[in-house]
Amino acid sequence: MKQETQSFYEAAVGRAAERVAADLDRALDLQALAREAALSPLHFHRIFRGMLGETPLELHRRLRLERAASALASSEAPITDIAFSAGYETHESFTRAFREHYACSPTEFRRARHEGPTSCGRPPQIELAARSGIHFDAARAAVIPVRFEQEGANMDVTIKEMPELRVATVSHRGPYNRISEAFARLGQLAASARLFGPESAMLAIYHDDPETTPEPELRSDAAIVVSRDAKIPADMGELRLPAGRYACTTHVGPYERLGDAWARLMGEWLPKSGHRIADGMSYEIYRNTPMDVPRSELRTELYVPLTA
Q: Which domains are present in the chain?
């Protein structure tokens, strides 16, 4: 069972990576990639990133840059044309991105490749570092020896039977890193409505994939667990997080690194665990706050629904 589950995720991500590498001249249809992988966009994004070390969009951009570097090394095509082919609208934006990854301008890279080995022993290389082993190759368009080298199976993950959670929410629309604004509003409303109690817990629920949804349209909820008979005020929403089996891991440290924790859980631990993700909402529960402890001691539990 465990091997079958791992093979399912590896096959789905491998197929998606092949699609990305095979069509570098068009914008990615990330929704279509997720559908073909039989995963929601949010789960697909996290699993892909966790397994390969970069998102589909990051893979697409890197392969385009490697193709551009190959063109600089092997042709006399104008740099502006190469920039447009790589998806950049201006020579300047292409030069900035190229310098960031290759530590030199496109002109300098072309000159160094044409001059041959230097005192360093070899000309600048076209391939950029990638854990997956996927690189552009002019002879075969792209090489896809996808490597799934995970250490996430060593994560401390517990399978929990969670009860249904009734939560009062304040919706947030916009960048996920601004959800603190919704939590500030949640705290005010919950205090006025006397929703805080001994079993209260603060949660965040994320509904959209940040790669496929424009930042202004991202939907998330700041939430607090409330009792069955609590009266939720009209200016707050209500959600029921279903009871069931969940994978849970605890992230200790700053909230800014929660994205990496999600990537390891979804892309490294899950494929090797023998479990399959279920329909439903993943969520975070905050067990302390920056007002209580230093950032390095913040404890956040990550929950992912699993099939029975």
A: 2-143 (1.10.10.60), 154-305 (3.20.80.10)
